[in-house]
Amino acid sequence: MSLPPGFLDELRTRTSLAQVVGRKVMWDTRKSNQGKGDLWAPCPFHQEKTASFHVDDRKGFYYCFGCHAKGDAIKFVQETENVSFMEAIEILAGEAGMQMPARDPQAQQKADRRTQLLEVTEAAQKFFRMSLRTGAAAAARDYLARRGLSDAAQERFGIGFAPDDWQSLWDHLQGKGVEADLIIAAGLAKPSQKGGKPYDVFRNRIMFPIADPRGRVIAFGGRAMDPNDGAKYLNSPETDLFDKSRTLYNHGPAREAAGKGQPLLVAEGYMDVIALSEAGFGASVAPLGTAVTESHLQMLWRISNEPIIALDGDKAGIRAAMRVIDIALPLLEAGKGLRFAVMPEGKDPDDLIRAEGAGAVQAVLDQAMPMVRLLWQRETEGKVFDSPERKAALDKALREKIKLIQDPTLRSHYGEEIKQLRWDLFRPARSGGARKPWSAQPQVWAETKSSLLVAAGDIAQDRLREAVILATVLTTPEIAEEFEPQLERMLCSDPDHARLRDAILRHAGAPGNLRDNVAEELGPDPLETLLSARHVAVVPCVRTPGNVEMARMTVAETLAKLEAQRGLKAEIAEAEHDLNALADEVLTRRLRDAAKARDAALQTDREDKREFDLGPNGAPISREERDAFSALMDQITFTKRR
């Protein structure tokens, strides 16, 4: 509908964002300043213990420094109530005492239609619940009892029964004055092809109501009581209320349970979800008669950063998991992933709970594997890699899959994990023993004191460079967005540096001072430790910030040196892999060429000690550390395997 000019501005003026958000969160009184409208709380959109969700009540905007959710009061109501833009406006206008303008006839008609259909599905739900208590439903009640569903559980999930009759629901709703076209539009009846009365879609079935996140019944699923029925499970057809590719069974209760810290589980069907919920796993959902879709994944990630796909322990369950991988890879983000828990062979979650209890399910969940492991399993299981061609085919397949990941940092981590798994698989066996996949570590080829010194020196040097890069960006925030791609790719050897890097990326380009925002998120200690370090404090653009060009050059040069050093390490690792099978003069030259490349990147590190533009008091990195690699190369002896 079209809103009159100024309506939204007046609505925002009358609406207190703090009051709207306050219904969903608990404010952190230590960080919040109520008088200034500066409020902090744990984010309602993702699981966290710290208060990273910020509300500026005076400006009317919120922002989460963890999941990056942002918006105004209208957006907040849309996301938390799962309503449309206009529905959110109606909710806020009602609370603010504002009269909604008249809708255009078409939009009003559509809204009225949805309301009517919801009334029809609600009436059908009451009929199915009543029918479960009749004599005709004795077999259905016995079945539910055998499956361990108590009366309380049946009430909680609204389980009912559709009588074994062609028009029982139709006649009941007609008797209530419900129009025929509404019954058909709600997916509860179908027109007769023989000219007779429309007939019920669900007959002789145990009925599971399907609700939207607000708890309103929008569709049904029915489990056949007749073993000869063609469809064991039958869902409502898609309607104006029900889109199965965008609906999750038990969505509302699962979202609430996940918000209280329970892991979000994705099962395959109604009974699995009910059994899991009754066993204490309240944050359980299931797709409805369809494979997991992109929309499902986005809905799941709004509830939890790392849902667990709980699979049946059969081939169909494994195949379903494999399909999820291809859908999920292009959608993955840092902090948004999936884990996979496979039930024992031949069992689903419901079977396992009834046989061994909730503890057995928890044991399976504790062993849930990250998606990268399942991807590796899919590409390697049951295959033999006894030729270069087969190994190359595996490498190509994995590269193609990893390239689907959009996030460069995440793509890099996937590559590292796959590289380690590949090493474990192809590592030649030692001492005539059998290969032991998944556990072996790369061998140390040069067992000398110099090699240990070089390793320690490299790590120390990496950390020094990381510190300079981070400190320069923090003190000259104007260059933060310019170097954002390189910072995303920068793998930090120090966990504290990794946290600072992630915080910088989250706040780069955000309102306010970058340094203050990072300090607000992480506390002052990490920044004080970084900026007070001797090798950082003497860097000119850190010591006297303000020279943007000098800061830009410092970061660019230091990043280049860091990448050159790590490129050398990667070349050595690859060469060592080749040396394990055959060491020759070509490989020796590869190592020396890599060393020369590293030396070229370090040409600025001469007698004037310009590594970080240090003064005459001396640099924190000794020349011995810098030259340690050359000492290592002089001591390595290469021999051909006989």
Automatic annotation (TrEMBL):
This is DNA primase. Gene3D superfamilies: 3.40.1360.10, DNA primase, catalytic core, N-terminal domain (3.90.980.10), Zinc finger, CHC2-type domain (3.90.580.10). The keyword Metal-binding applies. Belongs to the DnaG primase family. Its cofactor is Zn(2+). Keywords: DNA replication, DNA-binding, DNA-directed RNA polymerase, Magnesium, Metal-binding, Nucleotidyltransferase, Primosome, Transcription, Transferase, Zinc, Zinc-finger. Binds 1 zinc ion per monomer. Contains an N-terminal zinc-binding domain, a central core domain that contains the primase activity, and a C-terminal DnaB-binding domain. It is an enzyme of class 2 (transferase). Residues 262-346 form the Toprim domain. It comes from Mesobacterium hydrothermale. InterPro entries: DNA_primase_core_N_sf (IPR037068), DNA_primase_DnaB-bd (IPR019475), DNA_primase_DnaG (IPR006295), DNA_primase_Znf_CHC2 (IPR036977), DnaG_bac (IPR030846), DNAG_N (IPR013264), DnaG_primase (IPR050219), TOPRIM_DnaG_bac (IPR034151).
